[in-house]
Q: What sequence folds into this?
């Protein structure tokens, strides 16, 4: 067979190959914790946190179900934002169900006490069997198919703005820095995730003092398309200075039925200039109807639920689609 024929066949075969996939993001219901799965077009996966530990491994099994739907058979990078039970508790159950290759975290725990020690030691027992990456502000994660930059970790934030950011933040006028938070929340690994023109942040439970450090006097992050609401929508995070600074197009809140979804925090998001919609994993039972999204945008409307997830599919031009797995409702958003 001559070279010309071989080249012609190769071109024909290439033309029949499917187009590269988009970035897929699953916000998994772990009842007020976090478990967010990213699947890149290169086929690599990043899971941020693992939810709670329960005897029936409820959250681990919900993560595996989402991974199966995404065609994922292992976790390439597990990012543990901090060592609280609603974020790191599910590691033991998950590790029994799926291989985990890289463990990413902020290093040593900062809280003391028997419960904190047990939780941390259980995690490190599994981390020590894999490959460990220490998250440092300004550095990037070597995942293929999307860009992940660490904005904060171990109580520190990036020293200089990311590319394209650095503008003055009007929301800083009249604002003062909150007192230092001394809990593990303030140690959270926070990330800027980009895929072409698409930009989102996952801040873990990063507290208002470090939100201020990232936003004042200049905005070190820039504008965001999708905001994974900090700290499940609890009042210790999600400050006006931060939310107005990143000015997201869409907010996605990983609250539980009776955890997170704070009415005042929800209203800060709703009042932000360019926010079009707020999506929620749960209806917030402790807030009124006016401080919850419409049921169409909520994955789980009843307190006892089946653990439905919210899926985001992002394209490189910044367009993204958000889908509610409960009712199959979806909405498309174009780059602002």
A:
């Amino acid at each position: 067979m001559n070279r010309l024929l071989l080249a012609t066949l190769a071109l024909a075969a290439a033309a029949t190959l499917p187009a590269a996939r988009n970035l897929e993001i699953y916000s998994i219901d772990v009842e007020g914790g976090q478990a967010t799965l990213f699947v890149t077009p290169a086929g690599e996966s990043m899971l941020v946190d693992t939810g709670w530990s329960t005897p029936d491994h409820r959250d681990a099994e919900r993560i595996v179900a989402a991974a199966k739907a995404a065609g994922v058979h292992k976790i390439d990078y597990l990012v543990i934002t901090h060592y609280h039970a609603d974020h790191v508790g599910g590691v033991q159950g998950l590790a029994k169900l799926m291989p985990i290759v890289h463990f990413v975290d902020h290093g040593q725990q900062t809280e003391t006490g028997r419960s904190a020690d047990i939780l941390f030691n259980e995690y490190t027992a599994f981390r020590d069997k894999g490959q460990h990456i220490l998250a440092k502000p300004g550095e990037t994660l070597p995942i293929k198919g999307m860009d992940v930059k660490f904005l904060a970790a171990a109580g520190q934030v990036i020293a200089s703005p990311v590319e394209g950011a650095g503008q003055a933040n009007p929301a800083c006028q009249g604002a003062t820095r909150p007192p230092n938070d001394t809990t593990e929340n303030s140690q959270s690994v926070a990330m800027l995730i980009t895929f072409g023109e698409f930009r989102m942040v996952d801040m873990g439970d990063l507290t208002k003092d470090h939100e201020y450090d990232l936003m004042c006097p200049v905005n070190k992050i820039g504008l965001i398309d999708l905001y994974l609401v900090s700290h499940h929508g609890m009042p210790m995070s999600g400050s006006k200075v931060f939310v107005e600074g990143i000015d997201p197009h869409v907010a996605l809140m990983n609250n539980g039925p009776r955890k997170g979804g704070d009415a005042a925090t929800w209203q800060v998001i709703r009042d932000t200039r360019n926010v079009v919609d707020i999506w929620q994993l749960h209806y917030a039972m402790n807030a009124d109807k006016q401080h919850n999204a419409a049921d169409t945008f909520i994955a789980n409307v009843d307190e006892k639920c089946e653990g439905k997830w919210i899926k985001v599919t992002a394209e490189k031009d910044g367009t993204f689609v958000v889908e509610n797995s409960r009712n199959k409702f979806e909405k498309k958003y174009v780059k602002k």
